[in-house]
Amino acid sequence: MRKIISLTISLIYLVVAYSVGGTALFFKVMFFLLFLLACIWCGDVIVNYKRSKMGAQPLVKELSGCLVKLIGWILLLLPGVLVIISIITVKR
Description:
single chain; 92 residues; mainly alpha; 3 helices; 90% helix
């Protein structure tokens, strides 16, 4: 379910980016979203890969993967939240 929701939000961002800024902005947003979707979908894999390459063990393995996913969600939702806040602020 998280994949469907995050992909839907990403597609909305891509449509808005293309309609506002054309292909240049579209590709910039697309590469940023690919990073965020990788964090959301594969947070545990990213943490395990980094850990195996760095040689250090985190204190809590499950928390670190969840933290990567949480940061991915926050960064994915942040532009939408900022737009909603600016719309509400302008109407007042």
